[in-house]
C-alpha cells in the first residue's frame, strides 16, 4: 500500500532528528559527522539538506524537540503544586535544575549558544517569556505579587533562569553550582510577593 507523502516526510525528519540528537548528545555538535548520522538513519546527505538545509538547521530542529519536551515536563511540575505561586516557583526551579542533565547541558546550553547565538533571541525564549508574563499577570491580579510590569518581570526572570542554567552547564561542579543558583534564584522570586516569605521558610533540604 502506498504511504501518504506527508507521512513519509514526517518519518524521514524524525529519523534524522533522532540520529542527530544521539550524535550531538554523545560526541557534541562539532565532532558529529553528517555522514555518520545520516547513514545510521538509513538516509543520505541529500535528505538532510532537503529537510533542514544544513547541519545547523538540524541542530535547531533537535533543540526545538528537546525544548518541547522540557516544556511538557515543566507543565507537569507546576500542575503538582498546591497553589499557582508555588507552581510558578517550582517550574522556574525545575528549568534551572534541568541544566544538570547531560543531554540538555551539551546540546541546548553549550553547543546551542555556540552555534546558534544568544538563546534569548531564540523563538522558544519568546514563547517562554509570553507564557511567563501571563502567569505573572494572573499572580498580580489575584494579589499574590506586587504590582509590576509583567513583561519586564518575565524578561528579567527568564534571563536570570537562562543565565543560571548556562552557569550550571559550564561549571566544573554543576551539582554544587545548581544548589547555589536555585537558592539565590528563589530569594529573587520571593521579592515579588506582597507578603514576604519568612526567612528560612522556603529553603530546600539539600
From TrEMBL:
PROSITE patterns: HTH_TETR_2. It comes from the Bacteria. Residues 33-52 bind DNA. Residues 10-70 form the HTH tetR-type domain. GO terms for molecular function: DNA-binding transcription factor activity; transcription cis-regulatory region binding. The keyword Calcium does not apply. Keywords: DNA-binding. Pfam families: TetR_C_41 (PF21351), TetR_N (PF00440). This is TetR family transcriptional regulator. The lineage of its organism: Bacteria, Pseudomonadati, Pseudomonadota, Alphaproteobacteria, Hyphomicrobiales.
Amino acid at each position: 500500500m502506498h504511504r501518504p507523502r506527508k507521512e513519509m516526510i514526517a518519518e524521514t525528519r524524525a529519523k534524522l532528528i533522532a540520529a542527530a540528537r544521539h550524535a550531538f548528545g554523545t560526541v557534541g555538535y562539532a565532532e558529529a559527522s553528517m555522514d555518520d548520522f545520516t547513514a545510521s538513519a538509513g538516509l543520505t546527505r541529500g535528505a538532510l539538506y532537503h529537510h533542514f538545509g544544513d547541519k545547523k538547521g538540524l541542530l535547531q530542529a533537535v533543540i526545538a524537540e528537546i525544548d518541547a519536551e522540557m516544556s511538557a515536563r515543566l507543565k507537569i511540575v507546576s500542575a503538582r503544586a498546591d497553589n499557582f505561586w508555588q507552581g510558578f516557583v517550582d517550574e522556574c526551579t525545575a528549568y534551572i535544575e534541568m541544566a544538570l542533565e547531560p543531554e540538555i547541558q551539551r546540546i541546548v546550553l553549550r553547543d546551542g549558544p555556540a552555534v546558534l547565538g544568544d538563546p534569548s533571541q531564540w523563538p522558544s525564549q519568546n514563547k517562554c517569556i509570553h507564557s511567563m508574563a501571563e502567569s505573572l499577570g494572573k499572580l498580580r491580579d489575584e494579589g499574590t505579587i506586587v504590582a509590576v510590569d509583567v513583561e519586564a518581570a518575565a524578561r528579567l526572570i527568564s534571563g536570570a533562569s537562562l543565565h543560571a542554567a548556562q552557569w550550571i552547564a559550564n561549571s566544573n561542579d554543576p551539582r554544587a553550582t545548581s544548589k547555589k543558583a536555585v537558592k539565590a534564584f528563589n530569594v529573587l522570586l520571593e521579592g515579588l510577593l506582597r507578603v514576604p516569605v519568612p526567612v528560612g521558610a522556603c529553603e530546600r533540604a539539600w
